Amino acid sequence: MSGAALAQINAQIVECVRCPRLVRWRHKVAINPPARYAGQRYWARPVPGFGDPAARVSLIGLAPAAHGGNRTGRVFTGDRSGDFLFPVLHETGFANQPTSTHAGDQLRLIDLYISAVNRCAPPDNKPTPLERDNCLPYLVLELTALENARLLVCLGAFAWDGALRALSGLGHELPRKPRFGHGAEAQVGPYTLLGTFHPSQQNTFTGRLTRGMFLEVFVRARSLVDGGVRSPGSPDSPDSPDGR
Question: N or C: which end of the chain has fewer CB within 10 A?
Answer without folding.
Answer: N
